[in-house]
Amino acid sequence: MTDKTTSLQPSALAYVPFVSVDDMMKNVHAIGVEAFIRGLAEYIEQDFLRWESFDKKPRIPAHAPQGVIELMPTSDGKTFGFKYVNGHPGNTQDGRQTVTGFGVLADLSNGYPVLFTEMTILTALRTAATSALAAKYLAPERSRTMAVIGNGAQSDFQCLGFKALLGITEIRAYDIDPAASVRLARNLAGSGLNVTICKSPEDAIEGAQIITTVTADKRCNTILTDNMVGAGVHINAVGGDCPGKTELHKDILLRSDIFVEFPPQTRIEGEIQQLDADSPVTELWQVYSGQLPGRTSRDQITLFDSVGFAIEDFAALRFLKDLLPRTGHYSKLDLLADPDDPRDLFGMLIRSKEQGNGAAA
Amino acid sequence: MTDKTTSLQPSALAYVPFVSVDDMMKNVHAIGVEAFIRGLAEYIEQDFLRWESFDKKPRIPAHAPQGVIELMPTSDGKTFGFKYVNGHPGNTQDGRQTVTGFGVLADLSNGYPVLFTEMTILTALRTAATSALAAKYLAPERSRTMAVIGNGAQSDFQCLGFKALLGITEIRAYDIDPAASVRLARNLAGSGLNVTICKSPEDAIEGAQIITTVTADKRCNTILTDNMVGAGVHINAVGGDCPGKTELHKDILLRSDIFVEFPPQTRIEGEIQQLDADSPVTELWQVYSGQLPGRTSRDQITLFDSVGFAIEDFAALRFLKDLLPRTGHYSKLDLLADPDDPRDLFGMLIRSKEQGNGAAA
């Protein structure tokens, strides 16, 4: 009370580091997109290696006719993280994103948030990192060519992720909308990737060791039919990620060895919603830890049935938090009430009025 | 692409209104603490009146030895809201708040957040509004004197809430730590409330029509014993709010008509955790809607077993959102990636580098 002016300045405890969209782009450019994805993949692999230390909850959804908002929390017992994410397929009609998100990392020992960040861009990057990481264990050795079927907002990130982690050099792009493929080729110009725009899915998969499907239709679709998929390829199935939304013909699934993030979630959201509830799948964390094999033969068809899991977001939040001191690209939000005397919240409120805050209205 | 500089300015869609701790205090002072609590009580009552339109989920907790972090989501089918809140009893030892929080309101039709706000102060205010609203239906007519047992951070807000909604004029304050009562009396000086500091709980409840218990100990305690509580009073039990934390002797519960927010939650967290799982309780929303009576006789002991429920936070977020255009006390966060072409997130990222964002590192 002796120095009221000073006491009204929020202390360091009041502030939470905040990464805006603009900050996120600056952080990506500070180290480069490919290095950023490599960093994310490292953190994701680290967290998959300690899989059993995580509290794995299902997503908590709120539904409307137009779409869904989900909270995706997880914790390793020391740190808590969650992502807020929406999915609204009709959003692009009025200029909004189909999927946006933000996330929070917090210290579970005192409950205080330690990072608040946009996660639309970060999710796009972590999704690519997750796919490329899985392919490191599953794709044929010396894969150089990837077919990319569906050339929307996630496709650029997938291409760069596979370049960064596997050394892919050739992209064979197909989209039902040719303008989407032109956009992808333009965005990747100068990246070191050769992009060939293809006239059909059959054309796109010609000579590809990896087939990435990343279409956006919210319905059961058949992007790939059984006769299109030859022996020995790796399929990176990214687009099917909610009930009623799949991309692959069931017969392909029956010929493939299927790898998933978290079976209880993938059985509801992934391609394998088409299979019986006890169909065999392999959990990726067991592959990364060496408990189970990844690719075992040249002719095997491997399939990563990607849906996106909370631990990947947790790893992405950790990576970003560790990057920030190096880049400085964040601001500080006055988010936490921090009275001089923690038992005197009301006293902070009335002193703020004495200091003239009331006059501002 | 014709005007790159312009296209890099985030559009209106990118921004989410943000209420910092400082903004929150300014918003409170802009209309006054009592009017703010009255406004909150109105919105809470409105939302309790449409109780059945809400998706009522249990809290989603993450536990550590030191405390808990909880997400509290709810939705009315059109709007989604959630609160992040922690509870860490040992936090005051290093100058942190025991409970802090923040919250988000979002449009469920497109998934976009419409408000991001601190909720430490807002929760303190809505807890007081919730108690005072319940007392409007349950306390004896023309109540003027309230005993307040436990004079910590929530007690000031309770006193002002009961003044604003019920016309309480006399506060009889008791705390195991006399300094806490002195602090309360000092904070309420000039509020129009007469505060009498009492030497014992027995002394405090002398002549009180309402007894508020709001102690902070995280264990089963007996702030009130059966012989202390006379006929006709209303007990506002705020402090017992988690498993293993109660304030009242079981015999008081057995003599009282008990009113609760949401029975499945209160049976775990409230005073009634001491009773059988099928002990009779009345849901407040049914009292507010006139389906069930509140106080029915002069001698009846009524008891509001407060634990705090997500719909109260939802109502508080709605109230704040509606207040902001009047006060202007908020800023705008660049939280949502908003590319010119919603399908071209990566294009936004690379164009931001062309504009020199990369050089900033």
From TrEMBL, chains A, B:
It comes from the Bacteria. Pfam families: OCD_Mu_crystall. Transmembrane segments: none annotated. SUPFAM superfamilies: NAD(P)-binding Rossmann-fold domains. Belongs to the ornithine cyclodeaminase/mu-crystallin family. This is Ornithine cyclodeaminase. It comes from Roseibium suaedae.
